């Protein structure tokens, strides 16, 4: 079967700075793919490029294809993109507190998602469907009449999820959907996201910096650093046998595995946008860096499983 | 909601009380004796004293104040020291004229500012947005009376399309009423519209940056429908505030514009009162203007609640 989402050679620039360079990414039907990395690694920009909602002055180049849409998404005009957004492709953003219109009842905001694309016959049907969607995210029917400020962050994020899933999109993109939430409601929202995409056989692209979340939600993972994909593969493979030194550092810095080892940090900080070193973008923070790292490492492995590192970690040492 | 209403009403009453004291006190400390002015410089001291007694000006200021205030509450504005005519009916007649002017001016301002401000915000980095910005900047700098004189020169003197001045009540001749209303309304409204445009622009710019507008776009709304359905109400809150404040400016502008266009409104009544030294008339007109401004701002406060559900405490 062909991929639901296929991103080829995606490059995002703002004026003279390159923020994302040459990203390849595919998501298969019903597949749940994680996109991880520190802030500033280009994860969100990658997602916004797919959606065509980059901020002003930020320009995407390359190719983005989506199943069910017969045109290229990069550079498509507003008229065409507006038919794709919310219908074939939906997104849940990081900040639930500000993602909903404060002056509109949430029921109307959910119903609107269906009315825009005429996926329901009329207003009455849209409201009935909205009640149904609320039920799926475990919110009572009375929530229809509530305004966003009357709901908690977790409740609001469930509303955003409900309206994102309203038209059974082929692909759902979630950008740090639980980062702004209390730990106690994170698990519920994650569970509802997974249930939601599974029930619709939608594919999921899940952006986060939380490795534990990726481990529970996703099947495959891409690691981004400095606007590039530095490693990718099945979650189990990448998390237990990382090859790229950045992935290795990221894992050591998280408490994913119950090691007796103390958590270690990656030395240094993520450089500001456009100031990453030439060659391997990680070399100024990498303990293993040598002269050869000033040339860009080539991709080793297959399109879906591989890494880009001159001095990869030995498979045996972590096996 | 009820709590807010009570609170706002209390604020309104307090402001009315304070402003009435200020208006009264200001007129009281002005030099010059109304009775002396009314009778002329050659009148005898006895005649002046007699008139002072008639007007009640010989009583303590506090008594005079409460007398005046009590009259206002009953709708009795007193009797002019100069013309000896009742002031209430004059103010009532003139107020209707000014109300037409102010409302028409406000309509012009809104019709100009809402689309222009929105386009300026949506195209704030493009040439068309910057051009509109420059025009509105120019508009802000032009005083209403100058705009009025320019309009008269072009449309009345040069082109002869509109009467240069005058006023006809709408009931008497609606067509003439409208013809005569156009230029005063434009000269009042265009300048205010230019000011308001800048507030609309910043309010819309603010809303355009909001996350919920991105959510609306992500749902599949195109930029303009997204702004229309999700932005307008949110952007309206700061704009309504400015609109309320502008009403005061419009009333003051009307005073001048009425003079330019020879319109028998509250403004010309005020100016007549000033030149005739008709102190009580001036005092009453000023107080009516103050009441109008305070009432509008009270209504603006209530309008917030209608616009923004977050202010409806305990609504669920």
UniProtKB/TrEMBL annotation, chain A:
Q: What CDD domains does this protein's entry cite?
A: ABC_NikE_OppD_transporters (cd03257)
Q: Name one Pfam family in it.
A: ABC_tran
Cited SUPFAM superfamilies: P-loop containing nucleoside triphosphate hydrolases (SSF52540)
Its topology with respect to the membrane?
A: Peripheral membrane protein
Q: Which residues form the ABC transporter domain?
A: 5-251
Principal subcellular localization: membrane
Which Gene Ontology terms of cellular component type are present?
Answer: plasma membrane
Subcellular compartments: Cell membrane
Which GO biological process categories is it annotated with?
peptide transport
Q: Which residues form the signal peptide?
A: none
Q: Which PANTHER family does the entry link to?
A: DIPEPTIDE TRANSPORT ATP-BINDING PROTEIN DPPD (PTHR43297:SF2), OLIGOPEPTIDE TRANSPORT ATP-BINDING PROTEIN APPD (PTHR43297)
Q: Which family does it belong to?
A: Belongs to the ABC transporter superfamily.
Q: What is this protein called?
A: Oligopeptide/dipeptide ABC transporter ATP-binding protein
UniProtKB/TrEMBL annotation, chain B:
Write down the superkingdom of origin: Bacteria
The membrane spanning regions, by residue number, are 12-30, 99-122, 134-161, 181-200, 235-257, 285-307
Q: Which CDD domains match?
A: TM_PBP2
What's the protein's topology in the membrane?
A: Multi-pass membrane protein
Could you tell me where this protein is found in the cell? Answer: Cell membrane
Give the ABC transmembrane type-1 domain ranges: 95-304
Predominant location: membrane
Keyword list (alphabetical) reads: Cell membrane, Membrane, Transmembrane, Transmembrane helix, Transport
Q: What Pfam families does the entry give?
A: BPD_transp_1, BPD_transp_1_N
Q: Does the keyword Cell division apply?
A: no
Q: Give GO cellular component annotations, separated by semicolons.
A: plasma membrane
What the entry lists under InterPro entries is as follows:
BPD_transp_1_N, MetI-like, MetI-like_sf
Q: Which GO molecular function annotation, any one, does this entry have? A: dipeptide transmembrane transporter activity
The UniProt family comment states: Belongs to the binding-protein-dependent transport system permease family.
This protein is called: Peptide/nickel transport system permease protein
The species this protein was found in: Kribbella antiqua
